[in-house]
Amino acid sequence: MNKRLSTAKGPKGIRRFLVGDDDNGIALLTVAAVYFGTGRLGLSLGAAHGFATLVWLPSGLAVIALFRWGSGLWPAITIGAFLLNLFTGAPLLVAAGIGIGNTLEALVCVALLKREKVCSRLDSLHDVLVLVLLAAPISALISATLGVGSLLLGRVIDWPAAPVTWITWWLGDMVSLILVAPLLLTWSTLARAAPSRKRLVELGLISVSVVVVGLFVFLGLLRPTHWQYPVNHLIYPLLIWAALRFGPRGATAVMATFAALAIIGTLQGISPFSTGSLWLRLLFLQSYMGITAATTLILAAIVAERHALEQRKDEFISLASHELRTPLTCLLGYSQLVQRKIAGSDHLLVLQMLASIETQAKNLARLIADLLDLSKIQAGNLTFAEEAVDVDMLVREVVEQLQQTSVQRQINIEGSAPGVIVGDRGRLGQVVINLLTNSMKYSPQAEQIIVHLTSTTKDLTVSVQDFGIGIPTSEQQKIFQRFYRVAGEHKQAGSGLGVGLFIAHQIIEHHKGKLWVDSTEGQGSTFSFSLPWESP
Ligand code: ADP
To answer: What is the pLDDT at residue 36?
Structure first.
């Protein structure tokens, strides 16, 4: 039942429930029955003075029912809670009071969530904090206070029993709202895409680990009988794994599995929460579970938020580079056309200006091309041609081309790397251009750059050596990351986006090669890449 139910407000809803002749009636009946059934189960587990329990699923279920299908479903909660308490032995008016309290709890919780526009995915810190710090504690407080108040007024319990009953009621409802509600909320919408094979393997791995660790920690599996040492902390790595890799859905699923095993183990007296009366054991267990669930939800939301932000940034880069490319191509085209038209005339200054417009436009085009490549890499669709590439010849061509643009610097080639590989000529040329332009940019005073070509029977290696500012050892791995630029002198040496080496790394990796750097600060750097090759 995915559609929102037509709002059957108040008495109309009750009438429909009683008549039971449409969708709303069936929904009301179902929710009331589930509320009643799960409530009975909860009250059978260590209830304080018969009416308040620490294992209370109905609060979370009620919130989900109203959140998903509309608050018009509230009579189902009132009826379920009323009948449950009547059945448990409460006088008519007391059962009615408790029913009202439980209904208000769900209505207030949902109203707060809706007012703050909380999304069922729980993938933002704001949404999780609204649930954990506002909606859950406040609504549980209403239910606990009205419930215990009704029991006191009806003389079902006396004053000395009130504090224990209240704390049990409040904590039981809170944990349900923090643990059960998020589980159902996050799983109430379908996943956006089918998981890849790699992800399925990871899913299998985490599931097995959760069950094994859960059984070990909470049910004593493989543990010596008189084991006294605390082992609860073993669940944290798995919760963090789930939150980091599977987001709020993964986190809630793992948390619910642990919670279920923990309750079973605690009831049997074999979990780490097995000292004292059943009520005391469940009290400590549930406060532990509530805090762990809240922390895990917060972590999962922060991670999800970060992913979403990254995705938006990548989309923006892709869009911006596409948009920038069209006007730039037009500018470049016209400046070349005008140059051709007035070539040979005596407008020397104008020709010089047009030439510099062309150079700058080409620089800009290169930056935009880098950004486009970057967004393709992020989207996983950077394409590569497969052709025969003579690496030695390719390097010599690129060197010759760049030498023409830099007269004050000599680029020398030493050695040779004869051999043809299968790969993308354009992309490999892009790597060589990047390494050479970097070596020019970051060695402003040096007069020479050396390109070393070597080959073995297994691979071909190209090294670009400069005698410039070098790179501190601590930065040498980081420069291959996206957007990373070394601070200080490097930023003054030349402008850049910090994406060239990242792209180069991806290209070499695609060719099953290696890209690395050897550098000494103040003396210069040597960037090398090797490509696998089979000598004939
Ligand atoms: P950028 O466009 O900033 O040059 P790259 O990804 O090509 O981006 O390089 C990343 C960073 O690595 C540069 O910002 C610079 O700090 C450092 N770097 C790259 N090549 C050299 C080099 N030959 N000498 C010194 N530092 C270098």
So the answer is: 95
Residue 468 in contact with ligand 1 by CB distance below 6 A: yes
CA distance 287 to 424: 59
With a 6 Å cutoff on the Cβ, whether 165 touches ligand 1 is no
Q: For residue 10, what pLDDT band results from cuts at 50, 70 and 90?
A: very low
Q: What is the mean pLDDT of the chain?
A: 91
Q: Is 345 strand, coil or helix?
A: coil
Strand partners of residue 525: 519
Rounded to 10°, the helix 278-342/235-268 angle is 160
500 CB near ligand 1 (under 6 Å):
yes
Average pLDDT of span 215-220: 94
Cα(99)–Cα(147) distance, rounded to whole angstroms?
A: 8
- From CA 269, how far away is CA 136, in angstroms rounded? 29
State if residue 471 touches ligand 1 by the CB under 6 angstroms criterion: yes
Mutate to test the pocket of ligand 1, among 441, 442, 497, 503 (most ligand atoms within 8 A of CB): 442
CA of 477 relative to ligand 1 center, distance in Å: 11
- pLDDT category at 8 given cuts 50, 70, 90 is very low
* Cα(494) to centroid(ligand 1), Å: 9
> What Å distances lie between residue 150 and 52, 154, 191, 351, CA to CA?
12, 6, 43, 92
**Segment 33-83, tens digit of pLDDT:** 999 999 999 988 867 777 888 899 999 999 999 999 999 999 999 999 999
- Kindly report, residue by residue over 362-380, the tens digit of the pLDDT: 889 999 999 999 999 988 8
Which atom of ligand 1 lies closest to the CA of 485?
Answer: 14
Q: Is the CB of 58 under 6 A from ligand 1?
A: no
Q: How far is the CA of 304 from the CAs of 132, 133, 430, in angstroms?
A: 17, 19, 35
Q: Show the tokens assigned to 288.
A: 């532990």
Span from the CA of 434 to the centroid of ligand 1 (angstroms): 9
DSSP letter (8 states) at residue 187: T
Average pLDDT on 243-269 reads 95
